[in-house]
Amino acid sequence: MRVLVTGGAGFIGSHIVDAHLVRSDDVAVVDSLASGRREFVSPRVRFFQTDVRDPALREVFAQERPQMVNHQAAQVSVNASVQDPIHDADVNVLGTLRILSLCVEFGVEYLILASTGGALYGEPARLPADETTPVAPLSPYGCAKYAAEQYAALVQRLHGLRACSLRYANVYGPRQDPYGEAGVVAIFTGALLEGRRPTIYGDGEQTRDFVYVDDVVRANLLAADRRADGALNIGTGQATSVNAIYRALAQTTGVTMPPIYGPRRPGEVRHIALDAGTARERLGWRPQVAIEAGLAATVDWFRRQRQP
Ligand code: NAD
Questions:
Q1: Relative to the CA of 175, which ligand 1 atom is closest?
Q2: pLDDT tens digits for 253-283?
Q3: Is the backbone of residue 153 left (phi > 0), alpha (psi -120 to 50) or beta?
Q4: C-alpha angle 206/211/212, rounded to 5°?
Q5: Is 76 in the pocket of ligand 1 (CB under 6 A)?
Q6: Is residue 48 part of a domain?
Q7: Is residue 116 in contact with ligand 1, taking CB distance under 6 Å?
Protein backbone atom coordinates (compact mmCIF):
# COMPACT_ATOMS: atom_id res chain seq x y z
CA MET A 1 0.00 0.00 0.00
CA ARG A 2 1.16 3.54 -0.75
CA VAL A 3 0.76 5.58 2.44
CA LEU A 4 1.33 9.27 3.03
CA VAL A 5 1.79 10.21 6.68
CA THR A 6 1.56 13.89 7.57
CA GLY A 7 3.36 14.77 10.79
CA GLY A 8 5.47 11.66 10.22
CA ALA A 9 8.50 13.27 11.88
CA GLY A 10 6.52 13.78 15.08
CA PHE A 11 6.04 11.62 18.13
CA ILE A 12 3.04 9.48 17.10
CA GLY A 13 3.45 9.90 13.34
CA SER A 14 7.01 8.56 13.28
CA HIS A 15 5.92 5.40 15.12
CA ILE A 16 3.07 4.95 12.62
CA VAL A 17 5.60 5.28 9.78
CA ASP A 18 7.81 2.60 11.34
CA ALA A 19 4.84 0.25 11.74
CA HIS A 20 3.92 0.64 8.06
CA LEU A 21 7.53 -0.04 7.06
CA VAL A 22 7.48 -3.29 9.03
CA ARG A 23 4.59 -4.33 6.80
CA SER A 24 6.58 -3.35 3.70
CA ASP A 25 4.16 -0.55 2.82
CA ASP A 26 5.46 2.22 0.59
CA VAL A 27 5.65 5.31 2.82
CA ALA A 28 6.08 9.03 2.22
CA VAL A 29 6.13 11.69 4.94
CA VAL A 30 5.07 15.32 4.90
CA ASP A 31 6.21 17.37 7.88
CA SER A 32 7.10 21.04 8.36
CA LEU A 33 9.42 20.09 11.25
CA ALA A 34 7.54 22.66 13.36
CA SER A 35 8.01 20.26 16.26
CA GLY A 36 9.01 16.97 14.60
CA ARG A 37 12.56 15.75 14.15
CA ARG A 38 14.10 14.63 10.88
CA GLU A 39 16.09 11.89 12.62
CA PHE A 40 12.86 10.17 13.68
CA VAL A 41 12.07 9.52 10.02
CA SER A 42 13.47 6.32 8.61
CA PRO A 43 15.82 6.74 5.61
CA ARG A 44 13.58 4.21 3.82
CA VAL A 45 10.89 6.89 3.53
CA ARG A 46 10.56 9.72 1.02
CA PHE A 47 10.51 12.90 3.11
CA PHE A 48 8.94 16.22 2.10
CA GLN A 49 9.57 19.17 4.37
CA THR A 50 6.30 20.89 3.52
CA ASP A 51 3.70 22.69 5.56
CA VAL A 52 0.20 21.20 5.26
CA ARG A 53 -1.05 24.74 4.55
CA ASP A 54 1.33 25.19 1.62
CA PRO A 55 -0.19 24.96 -1.89
CA ALA A 56 3.02 23.11 -2.88
CA LEU A 57 1.53 20.09 -1.13
CA ARG A 58 -0.33 19.41 -4.38
CA GLU A 59 3.00 18.46 -5.99
CA VAL A 60 3.60 15.90 -3.25
CA PHE A 61 0.22 14.27 -3.89
CA ALA A 62 0.79 14.38 -7.66
CA GLN A 63 4.15 12.64 -7.23
CA GLU A 64 3.21 10.15 -4.54
CA ARG A 65 -0.36 9.23 -5.53
CA PRO A 66 -1.05 7.75 -2.07
CA GLN A 67 -3.83 5.19 -1.61
CA MET A 68 -4.10 6.13 2.00
CA VAL A 69 -3.34 9.29 4.00
CA ASN A 70 -2.76 9.30 7.72
CA HIS A 71 -3.07 12.92 8.86
CA GLN A 72 -1.18 13.37 12.12
CA ALA A 73 0.33 16.83 11.48
CA ALA A 74 -1.13 19.43 13.79
CA GLN A 75 -0.62 22.24 16.23
CA VAL A 76 -0.83 19.93 19.26
CA SER A 77 -0.80 22.18 22.31
CA VAL A 78 -4.04 23.06 24.14
CA ASN A 79 -2.28 25.96 25.85
CA ALA A 80 -0.86 27.32 22.58
CA SER A 81 -4.36 27.17 21.10
CA VAL A 82 -5.68 29.34 23.91
CA GLN A 83 -2.82 31.82 23.36
CA ASP A 84 -3.21 31.89 19.58
CA PRO A 85 -6.49 30.37 18.37
CA ILE A 86 -6.05 31.74 14.86
CA HIS A 87 -2.79 29.89 14.30
CA ASP A 88 -4.35 26.77 15.80
CA ALA A 89 -7.33 26.93 13.42
CA ASP A 90 -5.05 27.78 10.50
CA VAL A 91 -3.08 24.55 10.93
CA ASN A 92 -5.72 22.25 12.39
CA VAL A 93 -8.77 23.34 10.38
CA LEU A 94 -7.48 24.87 7.15
CA GLY A 95 -4.47 22.54 6.96
CA THR A 96 -6.79 19.56 7.35
CA LEU A 97 -9.15 20.97 4.73
CA ARG A 98 -6.26 21.24 2.28
CA ILE A 99 -5.36 17.60 2.95
CA LEU A 100 -8.99 16.54 2.44
CA SER A 101 -9.29 18.50 -0.82
CA LEU A 102 -6.13 16.89 -2.16
CA CYS A 103 -7.36 13.45 -1.10
CA VAL A 104 -10.50 14.03 -3.18
CA GLU A 105 -8.58 15.46 -6.15
CA PHE A 106 -6.12 12.57 -6.26
CA GLY A 107 -8.60 9.78 -5.53
CA VAL A 108 -7.17 8.71 -2.15
CA GLU A 109 -9.12 5.68 -0.91
CA TYR A 110 -8.86 6.08 2.82
CA LEU A 111 -8.00 8.74 5.39
CA ILE A 112 -7.20 8.60 9.09
CA LEU A 113 -7.41 11.83 11.04
CA ALA A 114 -5.70 12.17 14.42
CA SER A 115 -8.33 13.69 16.66
CA THR A 116 -8.65 14.12 20.39
CA GLY A 117 -10.87 12.47 22.97
CA GLY A 118 -9.13 14.34 25.77
CA ALA A 119 -10.09 17.82 24.56
CA LEU A 120 -13.41 17.19 22.83
CA TYR A 121 -15.90 16.30 25.52
CA GLY A 122 -15.19 19.08 28.03
CA GLU A 123 -16.14 17.91 31.53
CA PRO A 124 -18.47 14.97 30.82
CA ALA A 125 -21.19 14.09 33.34
CA ARG A 126 -20.15 10.42 33.12
CA LEU A 127 -16.69 8.92 32.86
CA PRO A 128 -15.26 7.17 31.00
CA ALA A 129 -16.81 9.09 28.10
CA ASP A 130 -17.93 7.21 25.02
CA GLU A 131 -18.51 8.71 21.57
CA THR A 132 -22.16 9.59 22.38
CA THR A 133 -20.95 12.07 25.03
CA PRO A 134 -21.93 15.61 23.96
CA VAL A 135 -19.07 17.45 22.32
CA ALA A 136 -18.26 20.53 24.43
CA PRO A 137 -14.60 21.54 24.01
CA LEU A 138 -12.99 23.90 26.51
CA SER A 139 -10.22 25.01 24.16
CA PRO A 140 -9.74 26.27 20.59
CA TYR A 141 -7.71 23.10 19.99
CA GLY A 142 -10.74 20.92 20.81
CA CYS A 143 -12.98 23.08 18.60
CA ALA A 144 -10.57 22.89 15.69
CA LYS A 145 -10.16 19.12 15.95
CA TYR A 146 -13.93 18.71 15.99
CA ALA A 147 -14.27 20.99 12.95
CA ALA A 148 -11.64 18.87 11.18
CA GLU A 149 -13.58 15.69 12.03
CA GLN A 150 -16.77 17.24 10.67
CA TYR A 151 -15.05 18.23 7.42
CA ALA A 152 -13.72 14.69 7.07
CA ALA A 153 -17.21 13.23 7.61
CA LEU A 154 -18.61 15.72 5.10
CA VAL A 155 -16.04 14.79 2.49
CA GLN A 156 -17.03 11.14 2.97
CA ARG A 157 -20.72 12.02 2.39
CA LEU A 158 -20.01 14.34 -0.54
CA HIS A 159 -17.20 12.54 -2.30
CA GLY A 160 -17.07 9.04 -0.85
CA LEU A 161 -13.59 9.39 0.69
CA ARG A 162 -13.75 6.90 3.55
CA ALA A 163 -12.49 8.66 6.68
CA CYS A 164 -11.89 7.71 10.29
CA SER A 165 -11.22 10.08 13.18
CA LEU A 166 -9.26 8.45 15.98
CA ARG A 167 -9.94 10.36 19.18
CA TYR A 168 -6.80 9.75 21.20
CA ALA A 169 -6.60 10.08 24.96
CA ASN A 170 -3.26 11.34 26.41
CA VAL A 171 -0.65 9.52 24.38
CA TYR A 172 2.82 8.98 25.87
CA GLY A 173 5.97 7.08 25.03
CA PRO A 174 9.40 7.31 23.36
CA ARG A 175 10.06 10.31 21.05
CA GLN A 176 7.52 12.60 22.71
CA ASP A 177 8.94 16.11 22.97
CA PRO A 178 10.19 16.81 26.53
CA TYR A 179 10.48 20.52 25.77
CA GLY A 180 7.03 20.87 24.21
CA GLU A 181 3.90 22.27 25.80
CA ALA A 182 1.94 19.04 25.64
CA GLY A 183 2.66 15.64 27.10
CA VAL A 184 3.31 15.61 30.84
CA VAL A 185 5.05 12.22 30.81
CA ALA A 186 7.76 13.45 28.43
CA ILE A 187 8.03 16.87 30.08
CA PHE A 188 8.36 15.38 33.58
CA THR A 189 10.77 12.64 32.46
CA GLY A 190 12.99 15.08 30.57
CA ALA A 191 13.12 17.47 33.53
CA LEU A 192 13.71 14.76 36.16
CA LEU A 193 16.57 13.21 34.21
CA GLU A 194 18.17 16.65 33.80
CA GLY A 195 17.80 17.42 37.52
CA ARG A 196 15.19 20.14 36.95
CA ARG A 197 11.98 20.46 39.01
CA PRO A 198 8.94 20.15 36.76
CA THR A 199 5.94 22.43 37.15
CA ILE A 200 2.46 21.03 37.66
CA TYR A 201 -0.25 23.48 36.62
CA GLY A 202 -3.09 23.34 39.17
CA ASP A 203 -3.16 21.06 42.20
CA GLY A 204 -2.15 17.96 40.21
CA GLU A 205 -5.33 16.12 41.11
CA GLN A 206 -6.68 16.58 37.57
CA THR A 207 -6.93 13.16 35.93
CA ARG A 208 -6.10 11.97 32.42
CA ASP A 209 -6.34 8.76 30.45
CA PHE A 210 -2.77 7.80 29.53
CA VAL A 211 -2.43 5.48 26.55
CA TYR A 212 0.91 4.12 25.36
CA VAL A 213 2.03 5.04 21.84
CA ASP A 214 2.35 1.41 20.64
CA ASP A 215 -1.31 0.86 21.45
CA VAL A 216 -2.23 3.98 19.48
CA VAL A 217 -0.16 2.83 16.50
CA ARG A 218 -1.93 -0.54 16.57
CA ALA A 219 -5.30 1.26 16.50
CA ASN A 220 -4.16 3.16 13.40
CA LEU A 221 -3.13 -0.04 11.61
CA LEU A 222 -6.33 -1.87 12.55
CA ALA A 223 -8.43 1.07 11.33
CA ALA A 224 -6.51 1.02 8.04
CA ASP A 225 -6.89 -2.75 7.65
CA ARG A 226 -10.62 -2.63 8.25
CA ARG A 227 -11.20 0.69 6.51
CA ALA A 228 -13.16 1.76 9.59
CA ASP A 229 -14.99 5.06 9.36
CA GLY A 230 -16.57 7.52 11.79
CA ALA A 231 -15.12 8.60 15.14
CA LEU A 232 -13.51 6.16 17.57
CA ASN A 233 -12.17 6.80 21.06
CA ILE A 234 -8.69 5.39 21.66
CA GLY A 235 -7.98 5.28 25.38
CA THR A 236 -7.73 2.93 28.34
CA GLY A 237 -10.75 4.10 30.38
CA GLN A 238 -8.41 4.44 33.34
CA ALA A 239 -8.05 7.84 35.04
CA THR A 240 -4.63 8.71 36.51
CA SER A 241 -3.87 11.99 38.25
CA VAL A 242 -0.97 14.16 37.19
CA ASN A 243 0.37 13.87 40.76
CA ALA A 244 0.33 10.08 40.46
CA ILE A 245 2.25 10.30 37.18
CA TYR A 246 4.78 12.57 38.85
CA ARG A 247 5.22 10.19 41.79
CA ALA A 248 5.65 7.18 39.48
CA LEU A 249 8.20 8.96 37.28
CA ALA A 250 10.09 10.39 40.27
CA GLN A 251 10.35 6.88 41.70
CA THR A 252 11.48 5.35 38.39
CA THR A 253 14.13 8.04 37.88
CA GLY A 254 15.20 7.89 41.54
CA VAL A 255 14.37 11.54 42.22
CA THR A 256 13.04 12.73 45.57
CA MET A 257 12.47 16.46 44.93
CA PRO A 258 8.85 17.63 44.87
CA PRO A 259 7.37 19.36 41.81
CA ILE A 260 6.65 23.09 41.61
CA TYR A 261 2.95 23.93 41.56
CA GLY A 262 1.80 26.74 39.24
CA PRO A 263 -1.58 28.24 38.42
CA ARG A 264 -4.13 26.11 36.64
CA ARG A 265 -4.12 26.78 32.90
CA PRO A 266 -7.24 27.87 31.02
CA GLY A 267 -8.56 25.38 28.48
CA GLU A 268 -7.42 22.32 30.44
CA VAL A 269 -10.15 19.90 31.54
CA ARG A 270 -10.28 18.65 35.11
CA HIS A 271 -11.15 14.98 34.58
CA ILE A 272 -11.23 12.87 31.46
CA ALA A 273 -11.09 9.18 30.60
CA LEU A 274 -12.30 7.52 27.43
CA ASP A 275 -14.50 4.49 26.86
CA ALA A 276 -13.03 2.71 23.84
CA GLY A 277 -15.80 0.11 23.57
CA THR A 278 -16.56 1.11 19.97
CA ALA A 279 -12.94 0.58 18.92
CA ARG A 280 -13.05 -2.79 20.67
CA GLU A 281 -16.16 -3.82 18.72
CA ARG A 282 -15.21 -2.39 15.35
CA LEU A 283 -11.43 -2.83 15.30
CA GLY A 284 -10.90 -5.60 17.83
CA TRP A 285 -8.65 -3.07 19.57
CA ARG A 286 -7.91 -2.89 23.23
CA PRO A 287 -4.94 -1.34 25.02
CA GLN A 288 -2.25 -3.87 25.90
CA VAL A 289 0.38 -1.81 27.70
CA ALA A 290 -0.24 -1.16 31.40
CA ILE A 291 0.73 2.29 32.63
CA GLU A 292 3.58 0.99 34.83
CA ALA A 293 5.18 -0.84 31.88
CA GLY A 294 4.61 2.10 29.55
CA LEU A 295 6.19 4.61 31.94
CA ALA A 296 9.17 2.30 32.53
CA ALA A 297 9.73 1.91 28.77
CA THR A 298 9.47 5.66 28.29
CA VAL A 299 11.99 6.49 31.02
CA ASP A 300 14.26 3.84 29.60
CA TRP A 301 14.18 5.44 26.16
CA PHE A 302 14.82 8.94 27.53
CA ARG A 303 17.74 7.60 29.56
CA ARG A 304 19.30 5.98 26.49
CA GLN A 305 18.92 9.26 24.57
CA ARG A 306 21.07 10.98 27.15
CA GLN A 307 23.94 8.52 26.80
CA PRO A 308 26.75 9.78 24.59
P1 NAD B 1 3.99 16.07 17.51
O2 NAD B 1 4.09 17.55 17.72
O3 NAD B 1 5.12 15.23 17.93
O4 NAD B 1 3.63 15.76 16.00
C5 NAD B 1 3.02 16.68 15.14
C6 NAD B 1 3.84 16.73 13.88
O7 NAD B 1 3.20 17.62 12.95
C8 NAD B 1 5.26 17.27 14.11
O9 NAD B 1 6.20 16.44 13.48
C10 NAD B 1 5.22 18.66 13.46
O11 NAD B 1 6.48 19.05 12.96
C12 NAD B 1 4.19 18.45 12.40
N13 NAD B 1 3.52 19.70 12.01
C14 NAD B 1 3.03 20.67 12.84
N15 NAD B 1 2.48 21.65 12.13
C16 NAD B 1 2.62 21.31 10.82
C17 NAD B 1 2.26 21.92 9.59
N18 NAD B 1 1.62 23.11 9.58
N19 NAD B 1 2.55 21.30 8.44
C20 NAD B 1 3.20 20.10 8.44
N21 NAD B 1 3.57 19.47 9.57
C22 NAD B 1 3.30 20.07 10.74
O23 NAD B 1 2.64 15.63 18.27
P24 NAD B 1 1.96 14.20 18.44
O25 NAD B 1 1.69 14.07 19.88
O26 NAD B 1 2.72 13.16 17.73
O27 NAD B 1 0.57 14.44 17.72
C28 NAD B 1 0.17 13.75 16.54
C29 NAD B 1 -1.31 13.97 16.32
O30 NAD B 1 -2.05 13.37 17.40
C31 NAD B 1 -1.74 15.43 16.30
O32 NAD B 1 -2.73 15.58 15.32
C33 NAD B 1 -2.32 15.66 17.68
O34 NAD B 1 -3.26 16.72 17.69
C35 NAD B 1 -2.96 14.31 17.93
N36 NAD B 1 -3.15 14.01 19.35
C37 NAD B 1 -2.08 13.82 20.16
C38 NAD B 1 -2.30 13.51 21.50
C39 NAD B 1 -1.17 13.27 22.44
O40 NAD B 1 -1.43 13.03 23.62
N41 NAD B 1 0.08 13.29 22.01
C42 NAD B 1 -3.61 13.42 21.99
C43 NAD B 1 -4.67 13.62 21.13
C44 NAD B 1 -4.44 13.92 19.80
A1: 3
A2: 999 999 999 999 988 899 999 999 999 999 9
A3: alpha
A4: 135
A5: yes
A6: yes
A7: yes
